[in-house]
Amino acid sequence: MLSAKEFKTTTITEGKGKCGFDISGNKALVAWNQCLREYDLIEHKKTAETVLESNMLALAIHPLNSQVFAIGDMRVDTYDDIQMTAPSLIVTLTGKAIEIKYNKNGKIMGIASEENSLILNRDTKISKCKPGHDGMILSCAFDPKDRFVCSIGCDGCLIVYQLSQVPQLLQRYTISKQVSPDAFQKLQSDFHPSGNSFWIAGKINAQYIITQDEPQDLQQQYQILHQSEICIIRWIHNNCVGSCSLDGEIKLWNFKSFTDLSLHWYFNIKCTPLYMKIIQNLFYLFDCNGNIIETTLDPPQQEVESIYKDKNIAFRDLLNQKVKKQNNQRIEEEQLGDENVEENIDDLNGFIGGNEMEKKQKQNMDSGMQDVLRPGETLPSRGRQYLCYNTVGTIILCKNTNMIEFEFFDSTFYKKFKISNSQRYAIGTLNYRGCVLASKGPNDLDEQGYLVGDGKSIVYFQQFIGDVDDFEFSLPEEEGVELVTIGNDWLAIMSDHAICRVISFCGLEILEFNTNRAIVSMCSYEHLLCLVFHDTSPMLNQQVLRGRIYDIDLQKQIEEFDIFLTPFSSLSWIGYSDEGLLSIQDSKGSIRIYQNNKWIEVYHNSRYWLYGIQDYKLCLLKTDQPLASMKQEMIQQSFEQQFVCFSQDEKLIANYRQFLTQLIILNHELYRWNEFGKYYYARNDDKQNDILLRYTQNLYDSNKMEETQKLLRKFRVDLFKQILNESKDKAIEFFRCHIKDEYDMNSIISLLELQKEKSTNNKELQKLLTHIKLLQRQQIIKQQQNFGIDKKPQSPKRQGFGLQKQNDQVNMNQIKSILEHREQQQQQHQQQQQHIQQYQVQSQRVETQQEDDEFNPFAKSANKKQSSIFDIGEKRKPTQTFGTQNIKKKN
């Protein structure tokens, strides 16, 4: 429980009694004794003053525009300046205005007066709430959700009306006996911010409550306690309510439920308060002596803020739990004997584990599971919204004109165009084949939450280049579209029932399956479809996601993997590059690619927004969230893979970063030929009709592969030279761990021999050269054993090449014999293959008497020797990874 240590009191009126008062921002208005005064709450001084025609006590400032205020006596007017030069008449009354109130957005004004009906002003239209009270009205209050309005009268009754064009009476409650107008302050009221309950100031130890669940009952609340009668009750936010009593006691309460309120903060002003208002952490109170009291306070934190507010608090809590656990174990071990230690540790672990489980459960409830993510979609801005933003172009939804605009970055590919949005499309995507638009159907709600349309999701497809006509179809009833994507000759739709439908470009469904998981996002490339879904509930504000890849041609799942995100982040983008490289970006700005069953971080910057990858370069926008109403600067960024390095040499670091980038490119190009090479020759033969040729026309051929390998060899040799300048021991370890290729080994040995000739100190270089040659021999033997050439069991002398005596047993004659044996096996195998091929060719000609089919490197025909795009210089297996090449015979 806290108390006010310091507060500032400023006298703003000379008289005592009733006044009109309101605060907005840093300005306060006071109407008293035919005078209107304006005060600056920062400088604590009067800034303006105006003489009134009569003593006006009803005053209210517009909640959204502090320059506009309403004031009234026998009539109510609005003004936009303190000098009151241009009045705008609202209504003329038959009695004095007692209270004026605005609703939350300032569109509705309520006027309580000496008349028996509450007056509402909405868009300059006046309506009266009938039936009314049996006397004057003392106060009124609006529901935060603009569903109800309440009025309290001198008859001691509370009347609840429904807010509509014509207010309708919902319920009448009798609070107390007939109330004197002089005591109207005792019946001030306020809605809970959620709108689920209505609170009225009442007796010393009781307040009246009306709940939405039981509107017929008027309950009493006994948790808010004061020494005298309560005159003001105000809600600050969902879990904090303030109360004032006639004796000047001010209290703030931490509200958890109707039966669980605890005192959080209090102080006493020693006089009756008239108005109370709290703006952020500033507390303002106006008392009956004409003083405004200001102090600072810390309201109780909301539940969302109190549980693991950010990652620092989460880490600190976990660390504290760990330290507590260790300290308690140490103390228990010192105080108790060995017999009781284990039992006490188990109890302590159970206690700590229970607390951790409870915190984790609260954390999971707090963080929530990530909603559906549509890659390339942005927030609306000034009536415009990107439905899709990728390397092909953009789809812009124009709500003001009810049109959808298509723009393309390559103007030679397709011209921009527009279509009418008569079906209320709100989801879209595009690639080089075409575009897909979809409406939300049963999830298409207006601002008031009402369903728009017939509740069916409409899907529209348009092909950019081809003979397929545009078509549209609808999903089954009560099933809405969540995600859409396009492949090479199909489109996929994910519904809110977790059902994925794959539709061919002719408009027929070819595949349907259920994921049984909460889907997050979806993307596609060629014949691959990637789905991202929740694996478990979020832990410590971090989403736990997994991905699945489906082969639509084979109609089966081919891979499942984890989606790795930065701690305390969520997925913000996912998609394939133009080369088929699966990539993601999280909310912390980390960009990762998926290769060889692992995620590799290639860039990190939270101020850039990723929309695609082209030619192994990131396509970024210089903003964290693009807006369709503004143009963003587009940039391309190379991969910048993060790694740990012992040296601070910038050249070495830059060299190794380029090496890692080229290694990623080479590995992916090998994968591309295995996965997408089957489209290459077919599309080259039909360049005019196959628009997806651009996906495969940049495939690396044998020359390009060899150039990339040569570049990698150059990087390796340069790295060896740079590390050699730092330390010879580290250079030896680099050779042992990173140099696996025969060409790299020979290049490094030639480099050392050249340095040996130039250097005067030959002993150290000779020792290093001998060690390197020894490592080269070890690598050759290991590679031959891995290829299955040397199947004989190893003798004890050949184990452990680190000993000098055993190294003498490894000589060049043994290596030559191994290579000669391997060449003989290869020659015999080739001769057998040639005989088999000749026989098959002759038999095929006799049977068919037709010409041979056109050569296809990916067709496994029996009449020709297999050829592969991976034959670079010398023959090796297509699936062989970089760095494992066949060993040439040494001269």
Automatic annotation (TrEMBL):
<feature type="domain" description="WDHD1/CFT4 second beta-propeller">
    <location>
        <begin position="374"/>
        <end position="616"/>
    </location>
</feature>
<dbReference type="InterPro" id="IPR036322">
    <property type="entry name" value="WD40_repeat_dom_sf"/>
</dbReference>
<dbReference type="GO" id="GO:0000278">
    <property type="term" value="P:mitotic cell cycle"/>
</dbReference>
<feature type="region of interest" description="Disordered">
    <location>
        <begin position="786"/>
        <end position="807"/>
    </location>
</feature>
<dbReference type="GO" id="GO:0006281">
    <property type="term" value="P:DNA repair"/>
</dbReference>
<dbReference type="GO" id="GO:0043596">
    <property type="term" value="C:nuclear replication fork"/>
</dbReference>
<feature type="compositionally biased region" description="Polar residues">
    <location>
        <begin position="879"/>
        <end position="891"/>
    </location>
</feature>
<feature type="compositionally biased region" description="Low complexity">
    <location>
        <begin position="825"/>
        <end position="847"/>
    </location>
</feature>
<protein>
    <recommendedName>
        <fullName>WDHD1/CFT4 second beta-propeller domain-containing protein</fullName>
    </recommendedName>
</protein>
<dbReference type="GO" id="GO:0003682">
    <property type="term" value="F:chromatin binding"/>
</dbReference>
<dbReference type="InterPro" id="IPR015943">
    <property type="entry name" value="WD40/YVTN_repeat-like_dom_sf"/>
</dbReference>
<dbReference type="GO" id="GO:0006261">
    <property type="term" value="P:DNA-templated DNA replication"/>
</dbReference>
<dbReference type="InterPro" id="IPR001680">
    <property type="entry name" value="WD40_rpt"/>
</dbReference>
<dbReference type="InterPro" id="IPR022100">
    <property type="entry name" value="WDHD1/CFT4_beta-prop_2nd"/>
</dbReference>
<dbReference type="Pfam" id="PF12341">
    <property type="entry name" value="Mcl1_mid"/>
</dbReference>
<feature type="region of interest" description="Disordered">
    <location>
        <begin position="821"/>
        <end position="891"/>
    </location>
</feature>
